[in-house]
Each structure stands twice: as structure tokens, then as C-alpha cells.
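thread: overnight batch results

M.L. [08:02]
morning all. the overnight job finished for the chain we discussed friday. pasting input first so we're all looking at the same thing
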Amino acid sequence: MSNVLEVEHVARSFGRQKILVDASFTVDAGQLIGITGENGSGKSTLLKIIIGVLKSDSGRVIRPESMGYCPQEVLLFDQLTVLEHFKCWARGYGMKQVHWQERMELLLQQFQFKQHLDKLVEQLSGGTKQKLNLALALLHQPELLVLDEPYNGFDWETYLRFWSYAEGIVAAGQTVLVVSHFINDQQRFDRIFHLQNGVLS
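M.L. [08:03]
and the structure it wrote out:
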């Protein structure tokens, strides 16, 4: 198997406070990987470095060109509809219309929110917003999907549908990285890393 993500001796401080001392791990294609740790352990800092929105002080990250990121707090626009979100994200991903429409239909069906397609985001429940948040990260079939505390906004049905879908895409060769202070269903994961005192083990 080939490495999809390589994190090598990553360190990061804010002022005199060391947040990450030494974080190293690799993730292969077709794996489901977890990173867990207490609040304040440096998970958010490591996640931001992995997805490329924060620079490390030392070390390096080799990431795939195609990534999907589902943040803990939904990054949506209240005055756009669900459909308009799919159109905007598809344009950002550089997807052809036929392709993104097919993907959209599949994701709407998988997570059961097609009835909300023409609604403004401000009209959606928190759970439906989280479904849209996840679907947008999955739209372009990324090599690596990074999920930040994915369970927080899921109802039980969405939780089960998420795992069903995640297992399917991992079996097809995509990679999923879950970052959470607590990881349920640990038997589903190929490996779980623990972050404590800035060190990943």
C-alpha cells in the first residue's frame, strides 16, 4: 500500500508554550485512522497543520492533492440553498456538471436530506447542516477525508449512515482520518494514535 499522508516530526509552539513536541505517523491508502486526546492536547493544532491552514515550526507534512475536510463547526452560508452550496463547492473542486450532479444525488440519498435541496441553510436544523457539511467534503471523492469531531452533530441514524458510507469508501481505497477527543467503535479503525503532552504515540 502507498502512503497517502506522511507526518514527520512536526512541532509547533505559540510563544513559549509548546503545543506539539513531536508528531510523526503515516497513513496508507484504504485505511481508517483515528487521532484522539484530551481537550488541549494539541489535536486542533495538528489537524490544522495536516490540512495546510497552519504552518509547523519544524518537521514536514506530505499530503495528497485531493483532500476533503469536514470541520467541527459547519462552514456554510445562511443565505444560500443546499443546492447552491453543492454548485459552489463543485466549482471550487473543478468538477464537471454531470459528475457533481451524480455525486450530489448519491450523497443526498445516502444521508437522507434531498427534501431540503431548495431550502436556505438558515432554515435547516443543526443535524441537517452537519449532513451538508459532510456531503460537501465528500463531493469530489477525495483521496483523504479529514473529520474533526464528526460525531457531535450526528443523530443516531446519521451516525449509522456515516459508518456505512465510511466503510464503503475505505474498502474502495479512500482514506479517512478521524480527529476526536473520544473515539467510539474503536474496532472499526485500522489504527488509533493518542496525543498527549504534545507527543503522538
